[in-house]
UniProtKB/TrEMBL annotation:
Belongs to the YggT family. Keywords: Membrane, Transmembrane, Transmembrane helix. Pfam families: CCB3_YggT. It comes from the Bacteria. This is YggT family protein. The chain crosses the membrane at residues 6-28.
Amino acid sequence: MTVVNLTTWILNPLLGLMIFLFIFRIILTWYPQVDLNRFPTNLIAWPTEPFLALLRKLVPPIGGVDITPIIWVGICSLLREILLGQQGLLTMMSHVS
């Protein structure tokens, strides 16, 4: 297994999982009474909060609405397409060798 194939094998499910978790974070913003420190919502909050906190420093809530999970869905989707899409960088590199 080449390094490119191994990287693809790891990145594809990882980025897919992060997109899934950020979409759940978007849904959880509709329910502000939900405690993110309790099971099972902490399984969604724990891996996503460091990313959201970092971006919240640059993009504060707009009108009381936190849009950072939406931005992260876009970033992860873009990275996945650029690296692993049909004409992605890693996809093209795996076909060269």
